[in-house]
Amino acid sequence: MDVIGIDGWKRKWIGVVINSNGFQEAKIYHDLGDVIVNATYEVIAIDVPIGLPQRPPRDADVLVRGMIGARGPSVFEAPPAFCLDPRWNDRALASAESMKRHGRGIGCQAFALMDNIRNADRVSESDDRVHEVHPEFSFFHMNDQRPLKFTKKSWNGRAERIALLGQHGIELPKMFDADVGRVAIDDILDAASAAWSAARIANSKAIAVPDATQRLQRIWA
Q1: CATH (one of 1.10.3470, 1.10.1660, 3.30.420, 3.20.20) for 2-51+121-220
Q2: Per its UniProt entry, which superkingdom is the organism in (predicted)?
Q3: How many C-beta atoms surround the C-beta of residue 146 within 10 A?
Q4: % of the chain beyond a pLDDT of 90
Q5: What is the rounded average pLDDT for all residues in the chain?
Q6: pLDDT band (50, 70, 90) for residue 140
Q7: Rounded to an integer, what distance in angstroms lies between the CA atom of residue 168 and that of residue 193?
Q8: What is the pLDDT of residue 200?
Q9: Helix (H) or strand (E) holding 28
């Protein structure tokens, strides 16, 4: 049984595949459709908001942000659903519209994800293998529900995350091929944490927030 964790990287995607034997491979994808066509993946876990709210904020974002302590700011508030319409490609206009409709604007970091959010939205509705994850929520559960001490871009933060992955059976190679080797370290670590959550989903061991029955607008770990 293979599962894959996906993280956005430079308008592309980096995927880490694992199974019960641990790490299998890492690959770069230009579109999530290229992942979906692979029927061998039992679960596809993606670090991107899936299921935008008609009225922000999403319960999932608020709850996870509160759970992971100092890592909370890494959970961006998902943009409102009207932003899925590509006519809202200008952040200033979209943020002004959100302020008018909902009394809150749209952050730069969240809006920068819109191309990836639209890509995920297209594939998630038709494929129930797709689940939303967040790396810091995954690492929080790897770490016995304790927030990590260091930011992921720091030396200690990377070491902390690599150690946790190893403790949970995901030993990443010291070197990748030339293509994957160009990917930022934290994006590979995020994809690996997503793969860990994907395996938990496949084995019915995952936790989802909020505690509801729907697949979308929930963050899994």
Answers
A1: 3.30.420
A2: Bacteria
A3: 12
A4: 92
A5: 95
A6: very high
A7: 10
A8: 98
A9: strand 22-29
SS3 172: coil
Given a cut of 80, whether residue 212 has pLDDT beyond it is no
Contact partners, residue 107, CB within 8 Å, separation at least 6 = 76, 77
Rounded Cα distance between 63 and 44, Å, is 23
- Phi and psi angles of residue 118, each rounded to the nearest 5 degrees, phi first: -65, -40
Query: What DSSP designation does 176 have?
Result: -
Query: Could you please report the per-residue DSSP string of 190-203?
Result: HHHHHHHHHHHHHT
- Residue spans per domain, the chain: 2-51+121-220, 59-119
Residue with tokens 């190679």, as numbered in its chain:
173
Average pLDDT over residues 96-122: 93
Dihedral, CA of residue 88, residue 76, residue 142 and residue 181, to nearest 10? 60
Tokens of 149: 């001490």
Q: Copy the structure tokens of residue 32.
A: 């999530």
Which residues are paired to 204 by β-bridges?
none
Tell which residue, 192, 35, 201, has the closest CA to residue 124.
35
What is the SS3 assignment for 99? helix
DSSP string, 44-63: EEEES--S--SSSPPHHHHH
